[in-house]
Design a protein that fits this description.
The chain is mostly beta strands and 96 residues long. The protein is built from 1 helix and 4 strands. It has one domain. It has a 4-stranded antiparallel sheet with strand order 3-2-1-4. It is flat.
Length: 96
């Protein structure tokens, strides 16, 4: 599988309380509170010649990813740098 790899940094983390319908064992639904973690990631910046972040910044000088996850303790930490791979779900559709 081919794809495009980018490098992003976690610049914002937010915790929210939200209501969600949860299916009960008897098949009914009940409203429940749950913690939602929202993350904002930006493309890395680099100005040091030869550094990995500069190479990624030269190829992807701007980008933002915003995602929310439902996990008790979240997923990412502020300041972490991550590789993100973008790949097509159906490569046969290229060029349509």
């Amino acid at each position: 599988m081919t794809g495009t790899i980018a490098k992003f940094r976690v610049d914002e983390t937010t915790r929210h309380n939200q209501m969600r319908s949860v299916k009960q064992p008897d098949g009914t639904y009940k409203a429940a509170h749950e913690e939602l973690h929202t993350y904002v990631l930006h493309a890395v910046y680099g100005d040091e010649p030869g550094s990995e972040n500069k190479a990624f910044w030269d190829a992807t000088p701007q980008g933002e990813i915003r995602l929310s996850v439902v996990r008790p303790h979240g997923v990412f930490e502020l300041g972490q740098e991550l590789y993100v791979t973008f790949s097509l779900t159906n490569p046969a559709l290229v060029g349509i």
